[in-house]
Amino acid sequence: MESVFSTSKRKLLLELAWEVCNQVGGIYTVIRSKVPAMVEKWGDDYVCLGPYFPQRAAAEYEPITEPDETEIGQTVRKMRQMGYAVEYGYWLVTGRPKIVLFHLESFIPQLNQIKHDLWERHQLSTLGVEELVNQVIAFGEAARVFIKLLADDHARRVDLVAHFHEWMASTGLPDLRRENVKVATVFTTHATMLGRYLAQNEEGFYGKLPFFDWQREARHYGIETQATIERLAAQQAHVFTTVSDVTARECEVFLGRNPDLILPNGLNIMRFTAVHEFQNLHVKYKAKIHEFVMGHFFQTYSFDLEKTLYFFTSGRFEFSNKGYDLTLEALARLNWRMREANMDTTVVMFMVTKQPYHSINPDVLHSRALLEEIQETCEAIEQQVGERLFEAAASSSDIAMPDLNSFVDEYWRLRLRRTIQSWKTKQLPRFVTHDLVQEDAMTRFIRQAKLVNNEFDRVKIVYHPDFIASTNPLFGLDYGQFVRGCHLGVFPSYYEPWGYTPLECVVRGIPTVTSDQSGFGDFIMQIMRDYENRGIYVVNRRTQSFNEAADQLANILFRFVRMSQRDRIAQRNRVESIAEVFDWTNLRSYYDTAHDLALKRRKP
Ligand code: G6P
Ligand code: 1S3
């Protein structure tokens, strides 16, 4: 009998993720940034599959009015004839791939039957799960139906590969294998559910790792369904992968299988032809951060902005997983050392994350508004003085400089004095920019470490419990611009399967701190020797205690604040030169290997 897999056949790649056209977190970045490199290789034979959420898709999705005659178009038509609502069109991101999005409500009426089958066939218990898991199961079923139809009708002519990201895309995978559907499958986990929970809650997580009983822990944390889906997908895919060696260590314990391959994450990198261009952008956006800092701090006291360095961290609010605790501890030590050394440099640290808040603090907004008024008044005075000086100079025969004070109207003098008076205050600058719904681990730690923005402190804290967006009135910058304006990104994570944030600094030429427990840090240590000289500092969190790691980080920061401006500029050039390594056109080859291996394993 003729094999359905032959080397001469065309290949068709489906990539499935909950975050296709639906931004939630890091996986969206992976898929979206990889699109141009995938389309370059696969052209129209690359298609992304995701769930359909009209509001989220609105800005990113353009439907194809009448399905084409491609295998995908025909399968979409067939599914619609079966009564399912399916979207088919283009994802409006760089690379513009074709996408298929499933209306989940189409599958909800059969949910009980699907769950029953999952239990019968795979002992996957879904009793009492939250609504999100129901949606995930509906998506998994939609994908399964689609892939089965596609394979049944077309596998004779095309080799199909389906790449599933995370458990949220993968409830249909075990049945595809069980029914021996002619598709080669790859499953990539971007973290493990249990790793996430346990790292956050179990002291000495990594030391205990080999001894955890996955099922007992999953029950304890109420995530047995999610952990089981992840485990089934990992075990049943032809090829199982994860994003770093760091996460691979968890996979055997929690998912019962060692990954076949590691697929590191990249970005779609666009470098400037001349390096001064990105250096200029640093100055441009730093000036915007200066404006915020003046508005926030100078109403109480001032410091020299020429001698001010901006550090930041950013990520979800996983306090110890993301290393916020370590960062604050190291900053407290840095503050003490800078004071001991009588330094006149100031460090402003931005802690950017997302926590529930009522609104931006009114005082913070008011101060910012008053500063703008002062600026407008100064501009008006500048114009008045300029015009009158010009008139005076042109009409006078005297070459002596006139008294500029006399050119300013009483109105403007008074207005400037009054605005400055009402702006100045004795209150310490707030260390949190928003009115939080409640105190949290961050505010408690900041108070306890006494990093409360006293004038004598060399390290100031700005805790911004919302992600940075250009619509935010405090900075008026988008995240990428904010990163460019800073001097150093600080991300000494304890649990971080990959971690895009340090990489997002590198590609913008901003030096960064990462850790050997983050996938990115681990990867950089494997591929490069002089990473520190290039501006990537790796904190050892694998073998050091919290206290030792805090000391190491404080040392790194102390060395950084003593660098000359000339050295900082040179370091930015060096760090930016690494960017290319992480371009998907280079890192796509890891994905190519996974797809080839899956096809090889699928073939009889
Ligand atoms: C860039 C600009 C320089 C500027 C420097 C400031 O390199 O091209 O003109 O002096 O940034 O660097 P700093 O580290 O002090 O923000
Ligand atoms: C995960 O997202 P997270 O921030 O929950 O996947 C990302 C993409 O692979 C990865 O960068 C991150 O470390 C993981 O944790």
Automatic annotation (TrEMBL):
Pfam families from the UniProt entry: Glycogen_syn
The entry's keywords: Glycosyltransferase, Transferase
Domain of life: Bacteria
Coiled-coil annotated spans: none
InterPro entries for the chain: Glycogen_synth (IPR008631)
Protein name: Glycogen/starch synthase
Natural source organism: Nibrella saemangeumensis
Taxonomy of the source species: Bacteria, Pseudomonadati, Bacteroidota, Cytophagia, Cytophagales
